[in-house]
Amino acid sequence: MKYTAGQAAKAVGVSKATITRALQNGKISGSKDDNGAWSIDPAELHRVFPPVAHALPATQTVKQSATPEKVNETGVLERENQMLREALIEVRQERDRWHQIAERLSIAPPAPVPIQQKVAEGFWSRLFRKSNGT
User: Fold this and answer.
1) Per the domain annotation, does 94 fall within a domain?
2) What does the alpha-carbon distance between residue 19 and residue 24 come to, in Å, rounded to a whole number?
3) For residue range 59-100, what is the model confidence (pLDDT) as tens digits?
4) Which domain range does residue 93 map to?
5) 31-32 and 38-39: which strand pairing?
6) Short-list 71, 19, 69, CA closest to 49
7) pLDDT tens digit string along 16-39?
8) Angle 57-48-43 (CA atoms, 0-180°, nearest 5)?
9) Are 63 and 46 in the same domain?
């Protein structure tokens, strides 16, 4: 038995527009009858969209499964958020420390270079003085 677009949507738990869009985009194949209604093979539909369990109504399944997952996901996200905030604080402190070091280095005057008398006199004048005995 083939599905119509509405039946296919119910079988996989999506909207009729999603099924129609998938047919138009070529994700699933189907054919239109003389009245313009879609005819979709179940195997083709479930190749792309997994079937929904029919044991419980969809609203009960969502309520039972979504709440614990949301709570767990929220806790995980809160822990990750806290870890990222702590890492950001550490990075900012490190940045400020390096900024202070760079600032001190750029403000500090260069160390004076002592000029010795012998260097200022020059090599030849020292040599000439030694040869004269002075």
Assistant:
1) yes
2) 9
3) 444 455 555 566 678 888 888 899 999 999 999 999 999 999
4) 55-107
5) antiparallel
6) 19
7) 999 989 998 888 888 888 888 889
8) 80
9) no
CB 6 within 8 A of CB 16: yes
Helix H segments across the chain? Answer: 5-12, 16-25, 42-48, 58-107, 117-121, 123-132
Long-range contacts of 39-45 (CB under 8 A, 24+ apart): 39/2, 39/3, 39/4, 40/2, 40/3, 40/4, 40/5, 40/8, 41/2, 41/3, 42/1, 42/2, 42/3, 42/11, 45/3, 45/8, 45/11, 45/12, 45/19
In this structure, the answer to whether residues 45 and 62 fall within a common structural domain is no
Rounded CA-CA distance 58/23 in Å is 24
